[in-house]
Known about the structure:
alpha/beta; 5-stranded parallel sheet; 17% strand; EC 2.6.1.16; aminotransferase; repeat; glutamine-fructose-6-phosphate transaminase (isomerizing) activity
Amino acid sequence: EKGGFKHFMLKEIYEQPRAVSDTLAGRLFPERGEIFLEGLNLTDEQLRGVEKLNIVACGTSWHAALGGKFLIEKMARLSVEVDIASEFRYRDPLVDEHTLTVLISQSGETADTLAALREAKAKGGITVAICNVVESSIARESDGVIYTHAGPEIGVASTKAFTTQLVALYLLALHLGRVRGMIDAVRCRELIEPLLSLPRKMEQALESDEQIQTIAREFMHARDFLYLGRGLQYPIALEGALKLKEISYIHAEGYPAGEMKHGPIALIDENVPVVFLCPINDTFEKAISNMEEVRARSGRVIAVATEGHVGPLGDVDALITVPETTDEIAPVLTSIPMQLLAYHIAVLKGTDVDQPRNLAKSVTVE
Ligand code: M6R
C-alpha cells in the first residue's frame, strides 16, 4: 500500500509531480489563453461583481492561503484577506453578497473551516472551496469547488495536498485576472507556460533527496530552527517550519526574512540553523543581505536557491537547489526540499512520521 516507500509521507512527497499534473488536467487552454475550472459554478458576471475576497483555512491549508493572497492580488488586482478559520468564524467577519470567501481544506471536514464557510454563507456571501476530498462537507456546502485531485493523503503531515492547493490557487488567480480584464489572452498564455513544465521540474527537485538526507544528518541535533523567506517564499518558510515541528518535534519558526531584525535575530547563534528560501527573484539581493546578517552572528545557513543562481550566496553551510521557474511557481518547487528535510530529520530521530503524537489527520472538533 506504501508502494515500496517506508512511509506514506515519503510516498506522497514523490507523488507530487503526478498530483500536480492531475490538478492541471483539463483546465489549461493555452491557445485561447484561458483557464477552465469545471466546478467553480460562478458566472463571469458574478466574478466581475466580487469586491472583496477572503481566504480562510487552518494549518498547512492556511499557508497555501497566504500564497493565494499574493497570487490573486498580483494577477487579478483584487484585495485579499487571509484568515485562520477559528479566528474568522468568531469575528463577525465583514461579508456581503459581493464578497467571495474561498475555503481551503484538504479533508473538507475541518470543523473550524466548515463553520467559517457556514458563517460566510449565512451573511449572504459567495463561497468556493478548494478541497481534495470529493463530496466532503466543505465541498458539498460551498457554492463552487475546485478539486485538487491529489489523491488520498494518508500521512498526517500534508505534502501533496499543499502543493496542489498552491497550483489550484494559481489557476483561480489566473481565471479571476482574465475574467476581470486584468490579464489578456497573450499574458494568460505566458502565465500558463511555466505550469506545463512544472511536473518535470518537480521530478528534478526530488532528485536532491539523498543530498537532503546528508544535510538532515548534520543538523538533526539542533533544538531550534528558523525558516526565512520573502514574498511568496514567506508562506513556504512557515510551511517548512510546521513540517519540522509536526513530525520531528523540533521547535521551528518561520518568519518573513525582512522581519528578522525586529526580534528573531536575537535567537541566532552557532546552534540555530537558519533555512533561507532564496530562489532567484526581485528580492534576491535582499535575501542575500539577510543571509549575511545571519552569518555575521555565526548562524548556520541552509540555503534553498535556484540552479545557476547560487554564486551570490557566498559561503553557506548547506545548499539545496531547485530548477529555475517564475517567481509565482517557485513556491511549489521550494516546498519539496522543505518536506524532505523535515522527513529525513524525523526518520533519523525515530519518530512516528505518518502518525505524529497528539495529531489527527483531520480535525473535526474545535
Ligand atoms: O484538511 P485540512 O486542509 O482542512 O486540514 C487543515 C490542517 O489541520 C492541516 O493542514 C494540518 O495543519 C496538517 N497536519 C499540516 O501538515
